[in-house]
Design a protein that fits this description.
By secondary structure, this protein is mainly α. The termini are far apart. It has helices at about 1-35, 40-60, 65-80, 85-95, 100-125, 130-150, 170, 195-210, 215-235, 240-260, 290-295.
């Protein structure tokens, strides 16, 4: 009887430190995953360094011209088989309207960065509790895209041999692409799959649609990636399927963010609670419906 009592006491004493350790680990995970207010200096530094690394890695991918052109031919044949090979028709039709194609050239060169940075600033100011999670989506999307550039070199339509596409930047002598004219030596011309113009614009559009409170702004959010899709095709910088690749990368980004925070970024609290609390803690919740996300996000 005495031995039994001693054994039970020892077991209880051993269990207490184990419980404390488990609780400490859970508390640490909760603190790491909990939304917190972003710091401006850190975010500026993080975005600058991240984009520099992205550009460095993207441009360090070997320019496998032969393989990239073969892949482009394969994509073009596949799109013909699928009945979606309309890029050449769109390219030639839009190129016949000078003011329109010149505007698209500048759209392609500028809005990709301006709108994305604008949405990040808006999130930082108006939705600090959702900023880090939504930014993680963007970073994860961009990161997995780099793997695509390494694994699948792809020439854009304008560089295909005998493809009949028009390089609209070269023809109209506008500055509209890092891969045309004098700027082509600064960028990897065979990193067309996936299209980050689509990945980033979809991220912007979905974020605006989910979080904006003004109806017409939400509509603009959805129109932005649609317009970007037309632009990347009209300027012969991408195939339709490059856009699909960009959307797939974005889906991966949302999965990463949801796995870390326990819910979609837009369902997190708009403003983080004290000590970084207020969401994404230990208890994971299922992904809410689109309607619930929209209502919760705009509170």
């Amino acid at each position: 009887m005495g031995d039994t009592t001693v054994t039970t006491t020892e077991s209880r004493d051993e269990a207490v430190p184990q419980q404390v350790t488990d609780a400490t680990r859970q508390s640490l995970r909760h603190r790491l995953r909990a939304p917190r207010r972003p710091r401006l200096w850190f975010e500026i530094l993080l975005i600058a360094v991240s984009y520099w690394l992205y550009s460095l890695v993207r441009n360090a991918v070997p320019e496998q011209r032969g393989q990239a052109l073969r892949n482009a031919d394969w994509i073009w044949r596949l799109e013909h088989q699928l009945g979606i090979a309309v890029e050449q028709s769109v390219n030639h039709a839009v190129n016949s309207v000078t003011w329109l194609i010149v505007g698209m050239n500048y759209y392609y060169a500028t809005l990709h960065f301006v709108v994305t940075l604008g949405v990040l600033v808006w999130l930082f100011r108006r939705h600090p509790g959702r900023y880090a999670a939504t930014r993680l989506v963007l970073f994860a999307t961009t990161g997995v895209a780099l793997a695509g550039y390494y694994l699948y070199p792809l020439a854009p339509p304008r560089l295909m041999n005998g493809g009949g596409f028009i390089d609209t930047v070269m023809v109209h002598e506008t500055w509209g692409s890092m891969a045309s004219g004098d700027l082509k030596n600064m960028s990897n011309q065979y990193a067309a799959m996936p299209s980050m113009h689509i990945g980033w614009s979809l991220w912007c559009g979905l974020t605006i649609f989910a979080l904006a409170s003004v109806p017409w702004v939400r509509v603009l959010g959805l129109l932005y990636p649609a317009a970007t899709l037309v632009v990347i095709v009209a300027t012969a910088n991408h195939f339709w399927l490059d856009a699909v690749g960009g959307a797939v990368c974005l889906g991966f980004g949302y999965v990463v963010a949801a796995a870390w925070y326990g819910k979609v970024p837009y369902a997190l609290p708009r403003v983080p609670g004290p000590f970084g609390g207020g969401g994404g803690g230990a208890g994971r919740r299922p992904w809410p419906s689109a309607g619930r996300v929209g209502r919760a996000a705009r509170r």
